[in-house]
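Subject: design request, 354 residues
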C-alpha cells in the first residue's frame, strides 16, 4: 500500500501540442491482480486528493469495505500536475535543471487520461472491472470511457458532468484571481502564493458545502457577538489546512484542467459522445444539494449513455456528500455491481454449457 512511482522516461505529448520531456506518475495499488486480470478497480481522485484512496475514501474503500484488497486489485493514480508525487509545476525541468514553476505547460483532463493509459499498460492492465470517480475524478472517468482506449465493464460517475459549466469555470476563475492577487504567486519558490491559496480554498469550500450545513455546524449561540464568528474561523482553518498540504501552482493548473473538461471537443455533439459509451454498465449519482455540479448535469449524462442508471444521493453536505455518505454509497453501488455480476455469471454458465 506504499506510494509507488512510474517513470515513463519518454516524451509526453499534450493535447495543446506542447510536450513534456518525460513524466512520472505516483500511484497506490491494493490487493493482487488475479490470473485473468478481471478484478481491477480503478479510482480517479478529485482536485486536491492523492493516490491513497484508502485514506481519503474510508467507508467505501478499505480492508473490510465494499472495495477491499482481498477481492480486488485497486489502483489509484495521482493526476498529472498534482504535487503528490506526479510531475507538476514544482518538478525539475531537465532542460533547465530548475523547477518549472509557471513555465509548466497547461494540460487537460485528456492528458491526465493519457497518463492513466500509460500506467495501466505498465501494470499489465488490459481491462477495468469498475472505474469510479467523483467531481474531477468523475470527469476523468467519463473522459476515459469516451476515449475508448481500454475495456471498462462498470462505470460509476458521481457528482460530475460531461463538460464543465460556465458556473464552475466562474468559481475556478475567482479562485485563480485570489491566487494571482497574492504577489508572491509569481515568485520562483515552492511556497509561492500561499496566502492566495488560503483565500482560494475558502472560496471553493462554499461551493462544496451548503447553506443548511453552515446554518447548523457554524451557528452562533452568543447572539451578542459582533465579530470572531464560527463561520469566519472555519473558513480560515480550512484554508490553512490546504496550505499545509498543497501548493498554489498545482492548484492553479488543476483548476485549469478542470475547466478544460468537455467530452465533445474535437468529437462532435456531447449527446452523441455519451451515446457512444456503449456496452458499459453505468451508474450515475447526483446530489440534489450540490451547487457546484447540480444534479441536472448528472441526469443529462444518465439520459444519454445507453441503459445508464441514475441515483440521487440526498446529503446535507452538498458536493462533499460523495466523500461523506459512504454507507449509502456502499449499498447503492454494491447492489448495482451485484446485479451485473450476477448477469455476467449467468452468461458464463450458459456459454460453458453450450
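Subject: RE: design request

Done. Sequence follows.
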Amino acid at each position: 500500500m506504499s506510494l509507488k512511482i512510474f517513470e515513463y522516461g519518454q516524451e509526453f505529448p499534450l493535447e495543446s501540442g506542447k510536450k513534456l520531456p518525460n513524466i512520472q506518475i505516483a500511484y497506490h495499488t491494493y490487493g493482487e491482480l488475479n490470473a485473468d486480470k478481471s478484478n481491477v478497480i480503478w479510482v480517479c481522485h478529485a482536485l486536491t486528493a492523492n493516490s491513497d484512496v484508502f485514506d481519503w475514501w474510508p467507508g467505501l474503500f478499505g480492508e473490510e469495505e465494499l472495495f477491499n484488497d482481498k477481492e480486488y486489485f485497486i489502483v489509484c493514480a495521482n493526476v498529472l500536475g498534482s504535487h503528490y508525487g506526479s510531475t507538476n509545476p514544482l518538478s525539475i525541468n531537465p532542460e533547465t535543471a530548475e523547477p518549472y514553476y509557471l513555465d509548466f505547460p497547461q494540460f487537460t483532463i485528456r492528458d491526465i487520461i493519457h497518463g492513466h493509459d500509460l500506467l495501466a499498460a505498465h501494470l499489465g492492465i488490459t481491462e477495468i472491472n469498475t472505474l469510479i470517480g467523483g467531481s474531477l475524478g468523475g470527469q476523468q472517468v467519463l473522459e476515459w470511457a469516451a476515449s475508448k482506449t481500454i475495456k471498462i465493464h462498470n462505470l460509476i460517475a458521481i457528482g460530475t458532468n460531461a463538460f464543465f459549466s460556465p458556473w464552475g469555470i466562474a468559481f475556478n476563475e475567482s479562485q485563480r484571481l485570489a491566487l494571482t492577487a497574492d504577489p508572491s504567486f509569481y515568485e520562483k519558490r515552492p511556497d509561492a502564493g500561499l496566502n492566495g491559496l488560503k483565500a482560494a480554498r475558502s472560496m471553493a469550500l462554499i461551493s462544496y458545502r451548503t447553506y443548511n450545513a453552515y446554518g447548523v455546524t457554524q451557528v452562533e449561540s452568543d447572539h451578542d457577538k459582533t465579530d470572531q464568528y464560527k463561520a469566519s474561523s472555519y473558513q480560515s482553518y480550512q484554508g490553512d489546512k490546504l496550505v499545509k498540504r498543497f501548493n498554489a501552482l498545482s492548484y492553479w493548473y488543476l483548476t485549469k484542467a478542470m475547466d478544460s473538461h468537455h467530452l465533445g471537443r474535437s468529437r462532435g455533439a456531447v449527446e452523441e459522445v455519451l451515446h457512444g459509451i456503449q456496452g458499459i454498465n453505468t451508474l450515475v449519482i447526483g446530489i440534489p444539494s450540490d451547487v457546484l455540479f447540480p444534479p441536472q448535469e448528472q441526469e443529462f449524462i444518465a439520459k444519454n449513455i445507453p441503459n445508464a442508471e441514475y441515483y440521487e444521493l440526498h446529503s446535507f453536505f452538498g458536493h462533499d456528500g460523495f466523500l461523506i455518505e459512504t454507507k449509502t454509497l456502499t449499498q447503492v453501488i454494491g447492489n448495482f455491481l451485484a446485479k451485473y455480476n450476477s448477469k455476467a455469471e449467468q452468461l458464463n454458465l450458459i456459454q460453458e454449457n453450450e
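The longest strand covers residues 127-134.
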